[in-house]
Design brief:
Blueprint lengths: L1 H34 L4 H6 L9 H9 L5 H32 L5 H13 L6 H10 L7 H4 L6 H14 L2 H9 L4 H12 L1 H16 L3 H6 L8 H7 L9 H32 L5
């Protein structure tokens, strides 16, 4: 009885801790959604957990004064989708090559990737911008998309996942059957690592969608502004600072992230439950 009681107490403590952590994660999002329905006076008056009636007013503020929200949606989605596809595919390809093949310089290449992970991104940002300016790619989506091919963190994650689930016998059997290396990777390896691909796709998409600093420095044309940049414009001198509109813009910008996560999460769950290799 004493042992059973101790287990129940521990379970209760764990449940309470989970509820607390859940509230810590949910309450800020809920406050943001509530503020998206309030006007400036109500927001300045203090915190509230009850929705107000000014959501439509905030939407009119958000979409008025030449604020092209749908154009920002399109630009953000285009950049984020391209970044996600390139990052996940080529990172998986690099991780597969390092894990499978034994070639000269393999350890050196892996150590270089590990070193790049430890370097802060801000360290090379100024040099990156100067390089983009010299090759005349400022105010273009290209420097926002192409560098995503080289993602050291994604390569590390994919390699660790391949080491845990990939069977060399599967690759050897495919080679015996006459399959080429790219055919093996595209039609055999990619389905096997689908849970890892879904996980990294979520991180890549969210990171690119929320990226503000790089587009802010490289893009100068308002027609190419991403959604975070357009939302930031509401705080400028051209527009009167409308906190309700800003909150609503942030809330709207989260919708594609939630949809993308809901779509990709099922692949994570199905991949983990089905197992890596089918008989």
């Amino acid at each position: 009885m004493t042992y059973t009681r101790e287990i129940k107490i521990k379970e209760t403590i764990v449940h309470i801790a989970m509820i607390i952590f859940g509230l810590i994660a949910v309450v800020p999002v809920w406050v943001m959604l509530i503020n998206a329905t309030r006007n400036n006076a109500e927001i300045n008056s203090g915190l509230s957990l009850i929705p107000s009636t000014h959501a439509l007013d905030n939407w009119r503020i958000l979409t008025s004064r030449n604020f092209q929200i749908w154009q920002g949606f399109g630009n953000s989605f285009f950049v984020s989708a391209c970044v996600t596809i390139l990052c996940v595919y080529f990172s998986s390809l690099v991780a597969y090559a390092i894990h499978i093949y034994r070639f000269r310089g393999r350890k050196l290449l892996w150590n270089l990737i590990m070193m790049l992970i430890m370097l802060p991104a801000s360290l090379s940002f100024i040099g990156f911008c100067q390089f983009i300016s010299k090759i005349h790619l400022m105010n273009s989506f290209i420097p926002l998309i192409i560098p995503s091919i080289a993602s050291a963190g994604t390569v590390l994650f994919m390699k660790q996942y391949l080491e845990s689930i990939l069977s060399f016998e599967l690759i050897e059997a495919s080679r015996i059957d006459g399959a080429g290396e790219f055919l093996i990777f595209n039609q055999i390896i990619l389905p096997v690592i689908k849970p890892a691909i879904a996980t990294q796709a979520i991180f890549c998409f969210v990171g690119s969608w929320n990226n503000f600093m790089t587009p802010f420095v490289l893009l100068s044309s308002t027609e190419k502004y991403t959604l975070p940049m357009l939302v930031q414009m509401l705080r400028g001198d051209i527009y009167r600072t409308e906190y309700g509109g800003i909150y609503l813009g942030i809330a709207v910008s989260l919708v594609p992230i939630i949809i993308f996560y809901a779509f990709m999460s099922r692949y994570i769950i199905s991949g983990l439950t089905m197992g890596g290799v089918k008989e």
